[in-house]
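Reply to dn_fold:

You asked what the input looked like. This is it:
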Amino acid sequence: MPNASTLQFLLTLAKGIASQFGPNCEVVVHDLATNDPERSIVAIENGHVTGRKVGDGPSHVVLEALRGNPEQLHDHLSYLTRTKDGKILKSTTIYIRDDDGAPIGIFGINYDITLMLAMENAIKQFTATEKDEKEPEPIARNVSDLLDELIETLLDIAQNHLHTIMPGYTHLQRAQAVTFRYYMEAYVSMFRRDVSRVQDSRERLNESPLGCAALAGTTHNIDRNQTAAELGFDKPVDNFLDGVSDRDYLMELAADMSIIMVHLSRLSEELILWSSQEFRFVALDDAYSTGSSIMPQKKNPDSCELIRGKSGRVFGHLMGLLTTMKGIVLAYNKDMQEDKQPFFDSYDTVTACLDIMTGVISTLRVQKEKMEASVKQGFLNATEVADYLVSKGVAFRDAHGIVGQIVIRCEDEGCAIEDLKLEDLKSFSDAFDESIYEYIDYRNILNKGNKKEML
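and this is what came back:
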């Protein structure tokens, strides 16, 4: 016999179907696990639970098919044979199996009303009853929700460091001064595009293939628009052949998830570098780091390394899907069953990585003083010195050469440009005056032109 929870569900479902079908409906749920196929689990007659034996149990052919080949069973498999006015011509049968795939029961329903609404209402009733008795288990959050959480976490840490100056890089060489806030917001922009891509994909994937049958539709007079609407789809697919053989929605989402992993991997690499002794810009929380089995001083950014490593796994699944589909003629081919494992593994990997990265960022410690000290060591105001000379009438070509010579002088003397005396600067160009020091102060630089957007 099914367990108590399953019995309660079957009873609720049977009652819901009976209430929708009217007082003359007979709903029977047969127990397929016993040796007596005629004994019902639940029997409702004239709207009342009777618990009686049912004279006409499921046919011998149906029982043997269920017991001998349960993989033929669907979670709810129904067939509707309709007349032209949309009523059910003959009985509708629904098979239900448990989590292990064993047959639980078979519904035999005789009446002339659409089954789908009855099932939906019964399931909603059962779900509401369960919620009152027991808080449901947490439902897996989708990719968009996790992206939104990561975005909010990045914005939170950015707001805590509005005026923290740090080096910006090109070719992994210090280039110009930026703010830590603006650096984090660069990743916010990436992840917002990811949200947009994932949400945009729904416009193409939310089409119902129901009614395509094997590849050429069905001779039964069904309303595909109605079933699409009842099941929450935007519309039925336009073409039967395409409907049964389309896997674009999986390839598109796999590509979306691959791009998400690119962004997560890039952010991971930043944090790996920044947490190293060579940078020391940030410190990862112990919860997201590990020690060494032999070197006690080590604190390894394993969480970020694993995210970076798992990106290749998701990329591989995308390439696998593309390779599977590239040579398949219309319509369905068995190759297409290879779409599910890689897609769901990609989904599990991406959601786990997003969740971990949110934790990494929310506990990240920013070493503000080290960042700002690194700015001064890298001649990050050299471009602004050239801009200053241009503002004094020096051609940029000449200003570029002058500043290059100044940087060489500073490297030889081990000082910053702003540490040179005015007479030293004038030895390179008479265009320099006292205003140069205020002009190339890093905080003043960020208040000039559209650089103010970084503050």
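The radius of gyration is 33 Å.
Hope that clears it up.
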